[in-house]
Structure formats: C-alpha cells, structure tokens
Write a structure and sequence with these properties.
By secondary structure, the protein is mostly helical. Helices cover about 75% and strands about 0% of the residues. The protein is globular and about 55 Å long.
Length: about 375
C-alpha cells in the first residue's frame, strides 16, 4: 500500500453503504442474545444454538461483520484526520470519551454486548499510531492476528495434555432460568439483569474481540491512507481472486468453525485459531460482492448508505427496538419465539431502521447520536438542518 494525497475528504457513499450492510449483520449476530438471554449466563455458548438457523448464523454471520465495522472505524479515522488537520489529537480524545460514556450507558441500559467502550479505548491507541506508514500498519495487524491464532493453538495443545485446563464454561440451569425471568420481568428486573451481567460480558468482549478489532483498525488505517475504497479501480483486477479466496477458502473454514464450536474444547480452540484468519477472507468477499452489486445497481447503495451515515444511531436503535420486542421494557417475548421468527424480527427491525434513516436524513444532516458526538468532538454546535 502506498499513501496518497488528496483534497479534504467528503462523504463516500460506498463506505456508508458497506457500513449500513454491516449493521444488518451485527443485528443478526446480536439478536439471539436478546431472544434467549439464557445464553448470556454461559459465556462460550452460541445463541439459538440448535437447528438450521443457528448453523446459518454461526457460519455466515458470527465474527464476520464486527470485523467489517472495525475496519471501517480505522478507515473513517483517516477521513477525520484529513478533515480535522492539526486538531486531530484533541478532537479524537473527546470523541473517544463520548463513545466510552455512550457505550457504558448502552451496556447497562440496553445491550450487554456493547462494543463502543472497546472502540473508544482502541481508538486512543489508534490515535498514537496515526503517523505509521500503511505497510507498517498492515504488518502490525498481521502480527496481532498471527499471535492470537498461535495462542489459541497453544491452548488447544494444553487442553489435549490436560483436558480440564480450558474447559468451556457451562450454562447453569438455574442461572439460565433466572436470567430469562429477569429479562421478561418489569423494566427494573431487566435493569437488574443488565447490571449483574454487563461487567462480566464486557470483559469477555474486550478480551475476545479486542485484539482482532485492533488489527482491523490498523488495516482500515492503512486502507484509508491508501484511499482503497475511494479509488476501487486500483484493485478491480483482483476481484476474482478475492472472491475465490473469500468463498472458496473462507466459507469452508466458516463451516469448520461452526462444527468445531459444538465439539470438544481442543477442537473449539483450533476452530477459533482458524477463524481468526479465515473470517477476514469471507468478510472481505462480502464487502467486495456488495461493492460490485452497488456498482451495477446503484439503488442498493442508495438504500443502505443512509443507515451507514447514521451508524451510531442505528447501532443504539437496534438495541432499543430489540429491547422493546424481547425484554420487560416492552413485549417481553424472550424465550417465546422460534429461531426463524427471531430472524424475522431482525429483518423487520433492519427494514424499519433503513427507512427511518432515509427519512431522518431528508430533514437533518446527522443522526441524533452523531449530532451529540460531533458537538462534543468539535466543542461547537453543528449547523441545524
């Protein structure tokens, strides 16, 4: 990758479309925990863990879409650097502070799997690395992924030597029942569940997703400095190879990941090691497929881009709507719907948010959460309208 120079950045519809697409995958990955909160008390288990829906979600969605979102965070940081100029340090510090506060509120009030606090912390680390060359950033990201994969493989070896060394956490039946009762009780019961569960799951998110997210931040930083998504003609000739690697290698590896997640501890750890690398291949194939589709049918980008422009508001909005359906804040349907119905709810929520995003942006320049973050970042009130 070679860093290039260009005028001050403007919004890039393709990036917004990819971000809007990633929001759909994140919703599908997360909604199972809202639909069946018993899994939240058994770290290491998967939501909707049986049947074809679970197999499809685990294979095609889990761990694929947060890496896209993480990559776009790093890429967007380069756009902000171009726009902010010499004020990038102070503004990024304030933005990360805002993300952290928002994430804590989100985690305790709505969604125990919140990732904004992690992004805020890693964003500060990315800030310190903002001057690294694209090639160096790519190498650092590869080292992170490689080291994490080796750690998983070493743990797998230790498990073979001592089967009790890395036993998978089990879901206690009584705790699972209590979790469902709290979530489907009144609002105060649900808040109690959040307060009890969020700190534990937040630690799991930081440890489990933190290194990979940082690697993708660095890949996004390198890609943004090289303007890869702004100049797709530079890599258009690689599209067939990306598709082959993504679907030809990444998809079979994703099937192995799903199968291994139901196997013994050592095989699970091997599956995680393989998935660390191959999930990136499949996620990249998804992105390239989407960009090719947008190029051929611009209406696809037009439908997805508004949601991507107000991604933070949509991320919070997903949690609000899921809570209204599944928790004591609303209908309290957790544990009541079949997996197919849960996916139907996810589709409806996603469609509603796509429509709301397009409507909102016809009257406003930013989403409500984006407006708050921008005001804190710039320490000024954005222009209305």
């Amino acid at each position: 990758m070679t860093q290039t120079a260009a005028p001050e950045s403007t919004r890039i519809q393709e990036i917004d479309a990819v971000r809007g697409f990633a929001l759909g995958g994140i919703l599908v990955a997360n909604i199972g925990f809202f639909a069946d909160p018993r899994y939240a008390v058994g770290i290491g288990t998967l939501p909707i863990s049986e049947g074809p829906v679970a197999l499809a979600v685990s294979t095609l969605v889990l761990t694929k879409f947060y890496v896209i979102f993480s990559f776009l965070f790093g890429y967007s940081f380069t756009l902000q650097m171009r726009s902010w100029g010499g004020k990038v340090k102070a503004r990024m510090l304030r933005r990360c502070l805002g993300l952290f506060v928002l994430g804590v509120a989100h985690g305790f009030l709505l969604w125990i799997g919140d990732i904004l606090t992690l992004y805020a912390a890693l964003g500060l680390l990315l800030l310190t690395m903002r001057d690294v060359r694209p090639r160096t950033a790519v190498k650092a990201g590869c080292w992170i992924i490689g080291v994490m994969s080796v750690i998983w493989l070493l743990l797998a070896g230790l498990t073979l030597l001592d089967p009790g060394a890395a036993a998978s956490p089990a879901t206690d039946a009584a705790a699972a029942v209590r979790a469902e009762e709290l979530v489907t009780g009144g609002p105060l019961d649900f808040l109690r569940f959040q307060v009890e569960t969020y700190p534990m799951l937040a630690a799991f998110v930081w440890i489990g997703q933190g290194p990979m997210a940082m690697a993708l931040f660095l890949f996004g930083l390198a890609a943004g400095k090289s303007r890869l998504l702004e100049e797709p003609e530079r890599w258009a000739h690689l599209v067939p190879r990306i598709m082959w690697l993504g679907y030809g290698v990444g998809l079979p590896a994703a099937v192995f990941f799903t199968w291994s997640s139901q196997a013994d501890d050592a095989v699970q750890l091997v599956g995680l090691a393989v998935n660390n690398v191959t999930s990136l291949l499949l996620a990249t194939a998804y992105v390239v497929t989407l960009l090719e589709a947008v190029r051929r049918v611009p209406a696809i980008g037009g439908a997805l881009a508004p949601a991507g422009r107000v991604a933070a508001s949509n991320y919070i909005g997903q949690s609000v709507l899921a809570c209204l359906v599944f928790t004591g804040y609303g209908l309290a349907l957790a544990g009541e719907l079949a997996p197919v119905a849960v996916m139907g709810v996810a589709a409806v929520i996603y469609a509603v948010l796509l429509a709301l995003s397009a409507w909102w942006l016809r009257h406003h320049r930013q989403g409500p959460i984006e407006w708050i973050l921008r005001r804190l970042t710039l320490l000024s009130s954005p222009r209305p309208g």
